[in-house]
Design goal:
- Belongs to the tetraspanin (TM4SF) family.
- It is found in: Membrane.
- It is a multi-pass membrane protein.
- InterPro entries: Tetraspanin/Peripherin, Tetraspanin_animals, Tetraspanin_CS, Tetraspanin_EC2_sf, TSN6/7_LEL.
- This is Tetraspanin.
- The protein is mostly helical.
- It is about 75% helix and about 0% strand.
- The protein is built from nine helices and no strands.
- The longest helix is centred in the last third of the chain and has 48 residues.
- The radius of gyration is 26 Å and the shape is rod-shaped.
Amino acid sequence: MASRRMETKPVITCLKTLLIVYSFVFWITGLILLAVGVWGKLMLGPYISLIAENSTNAPYVLIGTGTAIVVFGLFGCFATCRGSPWMLKLYAMFLSLVFLAELVAGISGFVFRHEIKGTFLRTYSDAVQNYDGEDEKSQAVDNVQRSLRCCGVLNYTSWFNSVYYLANGIPASCCTNLSDCSPLDLRNSTIAPSKVYQQGCYKLVTAFIETNMGIIASVTFGIAFSQLIGMLLACCLSRFITANQYEMV
């Protein structure tokens, strides 16, 4: 019996080391998700409002998920050091829930990418039609046009039917060169096309989504399946500790 305990101790030590390393990496991913959620709420709120027809809770979901992972990452390290079988089982259960959630999120994002593109077309078209240059969505439109060097939905002609164009012309955020782009030029449908970006914003945004969705899905699935490794380590360690405790009785 003593020899069997001697054989299981190195295995338990090895599993503890691996699980502590995994839990630390898991904890780091939680911090990253938390930081991305906070950054998304503070910096990307206007952009997200252009993609979603209604207000979205995506930043709050990231903040909540990141916080939960940080807490359970610390819990996993504590459970591993303590060597408590029930704590390790609880940790494994949490990892399995995270795995399922990330798997569903990754599949949903990949399957519904065309629906996301359609939603963006509707919401961005609505933002252009109701542009006033002052509200949150209008500022988001300006930021998109400046950063992506684009104009309008499909092209600059999208602005011709907007309420804003009748009074002010095409927004200055469409100008290729602000120093050579006067308000009078932007009101003139003949001169304005030579002063603004020719490519529409919808094609640029959807091209980015289409190009990077595969990469995003692959990373999501990779992170999700890494939870299986942690879950297996936690279950194995719990089993070995339980067996070792039983042999000592």
